[in-house]
Amino acid sequence: MRSGYLTSMLLSLVLAVTIVSGISLFTDRLEKVLSSETKEFLGGDLKFESNEQNIKESLEELILKNSQTSEMAIFASVIFSDQEMQLSSIKAVDNSYPLIGELELQDSSGTYKTRNNPSPGTLWMDERLKNLLSLDYGDKIYLGDATFIFAATIVYEPDRGSSNFAFAPKTIMNLKDLDKTNIIQPGSRVEYNYLFTGSDEEINLIRDTLEKNKNQGDDIESLDEDSSSLGKTIERSENFFLLGGLIAVLLSACTIGISSQRFARRHISYVAILKTLGMNILQIRGLYLLLFFYTTLLTLVLGLSLGWILQSNFINLMDSYFPSELPPPSPYPLYITCLTVLICQFGFIYPHISKLLAISPMRVLKNDIGFNQNILPVFLMGLLAFLLLLYLYTGLINLSLIIFSGVVLFSVIGIGLIYLLLGNSKLGLGAKDSLNLAISELRRRKLSNSFQIFAFTVAIGLSLITFSASQNLLGSWQNSIPEDSPNNFAINITKEDKEAMKVFLSKENIDTNIFYPVANGQIIRKYDRENIIDRNFNITWISRLPEQNEIIEGEWFLNDIQNGLSISDEISERYNLQLNDEVIVQMEDGSIETYIQSIRAVNWESFSPNFFIIGHPSLFEDKSSTHITSFYIPKAKQKIAAELMREFRTVSVFSVEELIKQVRDIVDQVTKALNSILLLTCLSALFLAFAALQDGFDQRRHQAAILRTLGATSKFVKTSSLIEFSILGFLSGILGSVTAHTAVYFLETQVFETVPGFYPEIWIMGPILGMFIVSGLCLYLVNGLMKQSPKDLLNLQT
Amino acid sequence: MILTTQSLRKEVSSGEINLVILDDINFSLEEGKSLAITGPSGSGKSTLLGLLAGLDTSTSGDVYLDGVNLNNLNEEERAILRKDKVGFVFQSFELLPSLTALENVMLPSELKSEDDPKQLGEYFLERVGLIDRKNHYPNQLSGGEQQRVAIARAFACSAKILFADEPTGNLDPKNGKLISDLLFEVNSESDNALVIVTHDQELAELCDKKIELKLGKIVD
Lengths: 798, 220
Fold this sequence. Notes:
The complex is a heterodimer. Chain A contains 20 helices and 21 strands. By secondary structure, chain A is an alpha+beta fold. The model of chain A is unreliable at 162-166 (pLDDT under 50). In chain B, the strands form 2 sheets. In chain B, strands 6-7-8-3-9-10 form a 6-stranded mixed sheet. Chain B has a single domain, classed as Rossmann fold (3-Layer(aba) Sandwich). Chain B is globular and about 50 Å long. Chain B is of the alpha/beta class. Chain B has helices spanning 45-52, 75-85, 101-111, 117-127, 143-155, 173-188, 201-205, and strands at residues 3-14, 17-29, 34-38, 60-65, 68-69, 86-89, 161-165, 193-197, 209-214, 217-218.
């Protein structure tokens, strides 16, 4: 049992286990920490936003035992110190605040963490507001009719995503103090937030009740709707890790299949002798099962250990991002790894062993007795295992079936095409010269070459998919945050302030982007008023298509027609608004009848103002609005933001510098992890290419020996093999590029949800890599053959 | 002389031990003559054949094939010499399974870039009585038939010397007799020298000359 290709099979299995366990352990822990982070960002498991307080009554009817609620009112108001005044975003919180996580505060005694809300009569503010109001701890502050004491600076608040007013410098107060300020009057713009945590059942119950009772403009948010740049970045990289893992496992599975076939071929005589010596099938089967039991154990131990090291490295790379120690993994990674090994064993190894066990003992007497030629069961088992692996990794039966059918269809067409392309062989081996021999060999071994090309295609194609997915991912991230991308946003800019602000910024040598007019409005369908679009939109009107926006249906505004609205594809999908639908835009100062002129794809990850709805300026000429703009303030000039807000009292400036830095950092770290996955995938591909090549070389070894015995020089045999395998590699490379491009298009449109692109590097790299890698591996194997004398190769006895 | 050896010696190392396979082998063979190398299993017969045909290299001593000292040639030059001057018949036939009988016979002529390998192939297949099986693959032929194809291939080389390693070893007596008769019959029609390694004393007796090996040395 010591002999026979067990090594390459074991190596592939260990590699598969390492990749599967490494990636699943990492993504499992990543998911856990992301879910708790998202939860903290949201402030609970579920958030209900409303402009009214009336939802309380409907919730009181529910009997809830395992959940907690927190109520807060959020509004903007001017706040006064003895010397200054400033617009602030104010959050009034009840005693349950914070439901999740802890606040980090700072006062004269230093920084500390707390799980309480501010005591009545005190306020907490962020650093920026403290500076703008020139405050010291213990100073008096005035909000509406009430007087407060400034108690602490907010260093960190868990529910950062809690407020739509979050752009202005922040104040947190006790909800009990709200009445005495007399700020909230009928018609005041206040947002009431209700946060809930609890068991899944009760959260679902609350959600259902909220859905039934919500009014127009109310919004329900839950954990799975994290659309922040960071959330998307992590989510996409997680998708990529899983894709890389799946690809590496599929590559390893193919290698395992090929190695098993060789292993079984090598053991034919062994099994025949055991049978001749009187062992029955059950005993021999037992022997092989025992062998595979031990190899499974060995690969699991080795692979899991290496997988643990791999995920530790990934975690270390991203260590600085995570606020605390990552939670331990769940048993899921172990389960998925063991299941992968079992599927590989039974799908790709066992069918070959089964064929081996069926070998006739007559083989001892007749050397030409080989395997049963019926390979259908082996194929079917392999395909079933392939489908199971797909399902195991995607968890989606439909997607698995689509990929499976695509791959099978592609294989049949691909192998058929190669078969036809190679053409028919002429009489003789064509050993006149190296080129003739190479072409004749390509044709002569048409069937096995087709399978070999197919294996190389799989290896090259899957590596290219992983490569371009990683490049695409990195490219889209880098594009979304170029070096000088705006790090500050200014909103609430009045028409009067707009020009003065431009002058102010240009004096400071700060380039400004477009000042977008913004007004709040509702969209109503003209002919189907029952079908309500239950939210308000910030609408802008400009004549130029903003960067990072792409028209996917209809036309952007043209000069010579009656122009309408351009809406984002999300809004089109969510509210079933189609091209040319007639709508009414309802605004505070009147309504506009118009139509949907175009649908846009918007890159929400870009750090620029983005809008769901853009109208043509001619429609909104007489509408009142404020403006929003973004600009880049270099680090050395950060004080300008505060100066700007002092100069223009109604304008709010908020910085996204920290967020940009956070996204950039995580992109850098994820890039390193992506490269490791890419490297492992390429390694699996190389294993597969080598196994496929080695399999073909068994047949060539004998031929090379005979040719050399009959007088062919080593150079002749080597050159002919090199030409043959360069052509094989080149063809595989082209097919690999076709595969990769098709798959990348599918992934971009269906999985990563980005705009599909054209990647010339795929078309260049495929054939070149194919040619060089395949011929390089071939050269390595041929050189090995040439080192042996023809006598050894022919096994002449002494 | 077509073939001469001088103090030929072959050693192989097995771990720390050096095994002497052949020692002090001296003989010569005239052009067009036949030689039988006999001896018990493990006596070094096939190793000697490998050295004589330039398939392997000796540890010391010289082999002159058609006046050329094989020791002065590298593997590539020996290959060219084999192509021009040597033909082979093996015990296990060594036909290429993916080629038909005719294509196997055509192979040496193809390697020599001769004008019409097909015509030559068909001529020799006719000569060994297998022209009607020319499109059959080796696995569709019996052992005796495969060896006849191998003989046709060996003669299609237009070689000056033909080496046969146990040509009847894998065949029953009837087929063995047929093959040895064929070998000598076709050989008599050419000027080839013939070197046969065999256990078969009857076959050895048909040769002009005979040497017997025992433990790597010539005893007779």
